[in-house]
Design brief:
Blueprint (H helix, E strand, L loop, with lengths): L5 H16 L5 E2 L4 E2 H16 L5 H8 L17 H26 L3 H11 L8 H24 L3 H14 L2 H10 L5 H18 L1
Antiparallel strand pairs: 1-2
């Protein structure tokens, strides 16, 4: 596929990422579809809103942030903090390697491939605007799509803690997008978001 025209490479990379994610055994939506595919689409939708002029490397990293995440289940690692971080680091390598392979296959050069690898690994979060954009997209997908189901399963204190940690990871642009969602949330979640934002401010001080 390396003979693709440059203008066709991004669409080919998206298609390859979606095909790789189509094996996800977890289904969602109506009609049911592989959740990994839906997640990639949601990430892309947020990136288009936050960074409409994003580079191909950023677009591909965002679309493939969790590419075949289901290959590395959390249960393969010890259920403690060191095990969690080992799992996260293994996932970063897994995602970066798969993205690099796809980009090379569709004709991207070494510089673009290396850039996408760095972004998806979030190697310079808070200092690299592209890595920060990816993190913002992930946080916004969580708040928009996953926050309410998560909150239904957990106590208030845990929710406040998770949202505060999420808030700290986000940029000013991410905060603005998140704040715009709050009025549509149920009253309990609005209250908890307010508490989480206050807690995040205290942790930064």
């Amino acid at each position: 596929m390396s003979d693709l025209r440059p203008e066709d490479r991004l669409a080919a990379a998206y298609a390859a990422i979606d095909l790789a994610n189509a094996d996800d055994p977890t289904l969602a939506g109506d009609p049911p579809r592989p959740y990994a595919v839906i997640y990639g689409e949601r990430m892309t939708a947020w990136l288009e809103r936050l960074v409409p002029d994003a580079s191909d490397a950023l677009r591909i990293a965002v679309r493939g942030q969790h590419i075949r995440r289901f290959d590395r289940p959390r249960s393969e690692f010890p259920m403690d903090k060191p095990g969690y971080f080992a799992w996260r680091n293994r996932l970063k390598d897994h995602h970066a390697d798969l993205i690099a392979g796809i980009m090379t296959e569709v004709g991207y050069g070494e510089d673009d491939v290396s850039r996408a690898r760095s972004i998806v690994r979030k190697e310079r979060l808070k200092r690299d605007p592209d890595a920060q954009a990816l993190e913002d997209c992930a946080c916004l997908v969580f708040l928009e799509q996953e926050f309410a189901p998560f909150a239904a399963r957990h106590e208030d204190d845990k929710i406040v803690d998770i949202v505060a940690k999420t808030w700290i990871k986000m940029s000013a642009a991410g905060h603005a997008a998140a704040v715009a969602m709050v009025p549509a949330l149920p009253e309990r979640l609005q209250r908890l978001v307010g508490q989480a934002v206050a807690a995040a401010g205290e942790r930064r001080d």
